[in-house]
Amino acid sequence: MNVIVLGAGVVGTASAWYLRQAGHEVTVLERQPGPALETSFANGCQISVSHAEPWANPASLLKVVRSLGREDAPLLFRLRADPLQWRWCLRFVRECRPARVAANLRQIVAIADYSRRSLQALRAETGIEHDNLARGILHFYTDQREFDRACRAAAAMRELGCPRTTIDADEVVRIEPALGGARPRLVGGDFTASDESGDVYQFTAQLAVRGEAAGIGFRYNTTVTRLLADAGKVRGVEVIDGEGRHRVLHADAFVIALGSFSPALLAPLGIRLMIYPGKGYSATYPVLDAAAAPTVSLTDDGHKLVLSRLGSRLRVAGTCELNGYSRALNTVRCEAITRRVRELFPGACDYDRARYWAGLRPLTPSNVPYIGRTRHANLYLNTGHGTLGWTMACGSGRALADIVSGRRPEVAFAFSGSAT
Ligand SMILES: Cc1cc2nc3c(=O)[nH]c(=O)nc-3n(C[C@H](O)[C@H](O)[C@H](O)COP(=O)(O)OP(=O)(O)OC[C@H]3O[C@@H](n4cnc5c(N)ncnc54)[C@H](O)[C@@H]3O)c2cc1C
After folding, report:
1. Cα distance between residue 263 and residue 235, in whole Å
2. 21, 194, 232, 286: least buried by Cβ within 10 Å?
């Protein structure tokens, strides 16, 4: 089959890879000059299966209310005259009910766990190196109430088979000695040895190179403007190529992996995806003192920041702003990140040479992605991976390739179709 994948972020590139492995002729269309130059460029880099709790939960609701009006708050919500934002928020509130939280968590853990195994197998097969570290993920807490809540969450995750261990403050420092200076403020943590971290951009760029060598056609600088459909099938896609020429490309099947930009392209077909951009920031610092910078991937839960050591760099990412599609950097938010990291690891990095970045997480209200077929027979979705697109990418791509190939995916997940 000829398959066109729309979008060369980590999800589109992984989908293309597994589709090619399944024997299809694959073309990827991407508006940027290379792969992974939008949301998959400089994220937090955690492969975080055991800390995959969706943001939609009763505690988050409280945090949103508390942070209203605070420019440096980890969660920032600005109401806009945008019906999608309003509908999205109402659904988010619905997904905060305990029964929904439990159901969403089961889905996310299933696909994330499958994905981590798929990533590990793919890495072993291809030899891709992406500053990956399999030293686990450690959440640490400086607020007793947050820690108590985390202990309850950890118990729920253990029931789903995630090996999350609740530990005291001394154990936190034993696992990550770079946190020694922060010891007086620590109240505890929880640790999962099986989680990992690694540079998502390096991974995706190398997978694209290997994919090209295996026969995948990547067309960069190519913007998709419209899907052409009739009689319940997509016939082609309209694109503008790098030279500004309008073209129509045809294929047997089409996969939408456009992250936050998926809903706009699908709306004219009557497919209404509930995906809203959740803008997040990252800062990348050159490491000055290798021993003073963490090597275990960390989550500073109170400040909603994740930290991953990427070779001689330290990546710190977090915050979420529901405020439309702008990727402009807000200096107040950038400085808040650096202030916190400098406070935790003084002297570890060259904080004056921070490289700031912002990306748009393709958030569904539940944080469960859309993977699977739509009501158009040859149109497939692999999008809406929200806060965990890197964690879920390989498993989502592999499962999607199975579905396109008419095979049953190996993972128990409620694949889309019904909602679309
Ligand atoms: C600050 C931050 C921290 C994060 N940390 C983590 C983490 O630690 N772990 C984790 O698992 N996840 C994390 N995420 C989430 C993760 O980065 C995303 O879920 C993931 O990158 C989404 O990948 P994607 O391929 O779906 O989207 P994208 O990477 O956005 O890819 C979509 C592609 O489609 C292209 N495109 C869009 N419209 C068009 C068009 N019309 N024509 C052609 N091409 C088009 C874009 O250029 C883009 O390349 C984080 C996100 C942010 C913002």
Report:
1. 19
2. 232
